[in-house]
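Researcher: Please generate the 3D structure of the following complex. Treat every line as part of one assembly.
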Amino acid sequence: MILVTGPLFSGKTDFARSLLPAGTDFSAAVCTDAQDLAAGCTDLTVLADELAGRYAVVTITEVGGGVVPTDPAQRAAREAAGRLGCLLAARADTVVRVFCGLPLVLKGELPQ
Amino acid sequence: MLTFVLGGAGSGKSDYAESLLAASPGPRYYLATMQVWDEECRRRVERHRAMRAGKGFHTLERPLDLAGLTLPEPGALLLEDLTNLAANERYDPQGAGPRTMEVVCDGLAALHRQTTHLIVVGNELFCGGTEYEGDTLPYLRMLGQLHRRLAALADNVCEVASGCPVYYKGKEPSLYDPV
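Model: Done. Output below.
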């Protein structure tokens, strides 16, 4: 599995699409916005295992950079999103951070 | 040459971008985009003026309509900053409104043609979550698209963290062989 992380609106989905062979069913191969699945999840480890087993590419938005939200649910969701990102990165063969549409490989290497 | 410098608040991106301008062949222009609304704006402008004092930059103030700007002669130019310029165009009654994206891109292209080295400073605003009120999310989406377009055109793209540049594309301009 290739994990694509990066800020909001940085071009993660376009980059994920560029990794797929022509004709691949995007929604079957790519899980986008994994951070949204973290909120309310009772077991992040199980979720990370499922995502890593099922998808070729997972994208996740970095949401932990701003001020701590005052709302407890938002606070928990943002914490869970960050932790899910770590769990996915540990399971990924390759981790790429996309910044302004530019990929930076953080772990492993991209397929040729 | 086109260099895009990004960074969070207080990351040292302005100081770093100014060092790039100072290292570029002259004449050197500093293009300020901020509209001064209140005392906080005035203090910010003063702080930046003091930082630039003695560096020999020719300051231009241009909150809107970059395409209408003609430089006295070609040179290096630092535009500070893209976030402000895009917000001015989007929200000022005199601005481009819904056409902000194309107007800003056209303006940058017009500036690029008049400069030997164009340096653009932008803010990294995109790691603070995905839930925003009002027009903030549409503005961020537009700005993110603008960042990706500019990064695709740029020779060099870096993010400054605690004053240290991390290059995602190209390299520090001074590291190129002299032409």
